[in-house]
Structures are given as C-alpha cells and as structure tokens.
DNA sequence: GTATCGGTTCGACGTTCATCAAAACAGAAC
DNA sequence: GTTCTGTTTTGATGAACGTCGAACCGATAC
C-alpha cells in the first residue's frame, strides 16, 4: 500500500469532496449513483443536442426536436423521457403540441459537483 | 409546426449554444459526440467515486482504488482506462506502483459547456 | 359521429456495457 | 535465473442501451 500525497483543501467542492481518507470513496454510494445517473442522462449525442436546443430557445416544440437531432419521432420521445426522468427537462402540453423546457437548476447541481477543476 | 419563444442571449455559453435557429441542433455533430463521450466517462458510480478520490488526494495509488470503489482490481483497472481514454485522468508508473491523477482542465471543459444553468 | 395529425408506448433487434475469473505482463526481491 | 506482487488484458456472460416500425392515445378538423 502507498499513501497519497497531502490532500489540498478545496472548500469550493460541494459533492465530490466530502471527506478525505484515502482508500475510501469520498462520495457516498447514494451521491455517486445520483451523479452518475445525471451524467448518464447526458451521455448520448442526441440528448446533448436536445439540451442545447432547450437551452437556446427557452421552450421547444416536440415537433421540432425529431428533425433537430435527425432521429425518428419515437426515438426523440424516448430521449426526452430520459431527460425528464433525470429532472433536466420538463414538458407542458398546450392543445395539440407539447413544449419542452430545460431545468437550469439541475444543470447547476452538476456544475457545482464539478466546480473543482483547477 | 410551432416556433419557439425568443431565444435569450447567453454569451457565457461556450459549446452548447453556438447558433440559434430552432428545429436545428445548436451543437455540431462532432461537438455533441465529444461532449457525450465525456459525460459517458462519468456515467458510472464507480467512476464518479474514482474521480472524487483523485480530486481529493491529488494522486492516488491504483492499489487503493479497488478497495475505494468496492470492486475487483480488474474492474478498477477497466474504469481507470475509460477515465484515461476520456482524458479525465493520467497515470504514472513509479517502481511497482501506478499512481493516478485527475486532469482538472478536462473537467473545466465540461463546466464551461454547462455554465449556462441559471 | 369519422378522419387526421402529433406524441407516446410497446415490441423487437443488434450493440454496448459492467463485471469477474483467469491468463498474461512487468518489476522487485531473492 | 526463480519467485513473488501489483497491474493490465482477455474471454465470457448477463444486463442495459439506442433505434425503429407498429400500435395506441388525445385533440383537432370535418
């Protein structure tokens, strides 16, 4: 076994650095799973494009998303459901159409978890 | 078809908001794929724990990571390779042991891509 | 009422992934 | 040289994922 070098104090770290003993995960199992689930929701090019569309337009009709990502309507609906389940997007039905929005607060949670980079 | 509401100008957006026409992805295919690949590298609880260990300790012996995530050495090596391939970690062999470090600059790229939340 | 259109869900298919046991590899100690 | 010890790679297996066509549900138009 080898001990690690001195751990630098990084008070700005929110989630990823809760404790410091080496040979032990610094995030609890639940936190790691929750973070991984959010990353997984973004771990597909189609969903990255969808989030970019939502963040650009504040509100996007579902009918525009299928063409925006170049996939079938069924596939687009599948990805939108994943983003909704992850809390990264919300939907609202108005008449015939469904409109999607991004949830910036959820993205903020990710930024805070990563806000340790240099 | 329905047009979206006015797109708010968000000059701080680096990657996700390059253009603005609705019904069209705001990120190029290559960018979306690159971002998705980085998110995918973090889309597993074991890898989230590993990154937290690396960010806490500045340098971690590979021998400590297996126990830290509660998986076999082979599995730990597998996850470390994924993090290395994504550019999120580097390794250095000194004598018998291998030491891993985080690459904060790569995490910064993700933060900038997400730095649009509220 | 029926017909049509937008969106979601279901079912199936092929691909990718996480995991571990076992084998292979690389140094260090003898 | 041989024998450990730590790490990576290989192979196999079961689970999860992305994709699309078809079926389904809601709301509008006729």
Task: Describe the protein.
The structure is a homodimer of 118-residue chains. With 118 residues, chain A is mostly helical. The first copy, chain A, has a single domain (29-114), classed as Arc Repressor Mutant, subunit A, CATH 1.10.10. Helix content of chain A is 49%, strand content 12%. Chain A is built from five helices and three strands; from the N terminus they run ααβααββα. Chain A has a three-stranded antiparallel β-sheet with strand order 1-3-2. In chain A, strand 2 and strand 3 (97-102) form a beta hairpin. In chain A, helix 2 (45-57) crosses helix 4 and helix 3 (62-69) packs across helix 4. Chain A is elongated. Chains A and B meet through helix 1, helix 2, strand 1, helix 3 and helix 5 of A and helix 1, helix 2, strand 1, helix 3 and helix 5 of B. The first copy, chain A, binds a DNA duplex (30 and 30 nucleotides) through residues 44, 46, 62-63, 71-81, 93, 95-98.
Considering DSSP H and I runs of 4 or more, what fraction of the residues of chain A is helical? Answer: 40-55%
Q: What is the count of structural domains of chain A?
A: 1
CATH architecture of chain A: Orthogonal Bundle
Strand order of the largest sheet of chain A: 1-3-2
Oligomeric status of the shown chains? homodimer
Structural class of chain A: mainly alpha
Secondary structure tally, helices of chain A: 5
**CATH fold descriptor of chain A:** Arc Repressor Mutant, subunit A
Rg of chain A (C-alpha, Å): 18 Å
Topology as H/E string of chain A? HHEHHEEH
What global shape of chain A is seen?
elongated
Query: What is the strand tally of chain A?
Result: 3
In whole angstroms, the N-to-C terminal distance of chain A is 28 Å
What about the largest sheet of chain A?
Answer: 3 strands, antiparallel
* Most extensive chain interface and residues per partner: A-B, 66 and 65 residues
The fraction of residues in strands of chain A falls at 5-15%
CATH superfamily of chain A: Winged helix-like DNA-binding domain superfamily/Winged helix DNA-binding domain
GO molecular function, one term (chains A, B): DNA binding
Domain HTH arsR-type (chains A, B): 27-118
Pfam families (chains A, B): HTH_5 (PF01022)
Keywords (chains A, B): DNA-binding, Transcription, Transcription regulation
